[in-house]
Design a protein that fits this description.
Length: about 260
Amino acid sequence: MNRDPGDITPRRQVLAVTGKGGAGKTTFTAILAKLLAKEGVNLLAVDADPPVSLTYALGARPLKTVGDMRSRLIEDPAEKRRFNDRHTRDVVKDEVLIELDGMSLLILGRAEGPGCYCGLNQLLKFGIESLSKEYEVTLIDCEAGIEQINRRAIDSIDTLIMISDATVKGLRTAAYLKEIAEKYGVQGPYRTGLVLNRVCDGVPTLEETAREMGLDVLGTVPVDANVAEYDRLGRPTIELPDDSPSVVAVGRILKALRPPE
């Protein structure tokens, strides 16, 4: 069952961002990280999407990943013995965590070779659950779709933020993600919210449609030429100007994510 928005504790929040592929969830997550870091929040950013898009959006490189660590533990008996008596939290913190300007970054990375991500996601889950206790906010960029929710790789969160493009098709996907989270994926009380991304015209109609689908609209992010230009040039999203339309809009949404004073 979803929690009332006013029940979210202002400290040690865990925010997970999801949505269908191409909706702009990574851009939104990077901008949200930028704003939280600027406020001086003790922030853990988690790139849980195997293509590591958030990592690049934050201006970093995937030099250390959970996937790399898992491979070493599986393939090298000496490494396994070295980590054997240590808590997963400490291993992840020492071997994987990357310190950036204003935040820490945890990267899932890709699985080595073919096969399922189940073991990798379980290690990510344990890492998030233990590390998040040391940060005011943990911000997770999930993989597109329902898999991490369905496999409970993303668990015990405060808010599930669903990013949709400005289409009814996108709203249906968001409604389905919410349904999966409620039935199978997320444990404990939490809040869900929808963000409409890259909007132009017809937003009031879409917002009304979203509410009819049972979606709580957190806000909208307009089409932003700066985002398109940064993507074209390969510049990190986190470097967007503070007055860029998307940054201003995400700032308003950040306020909506907070409980009333």
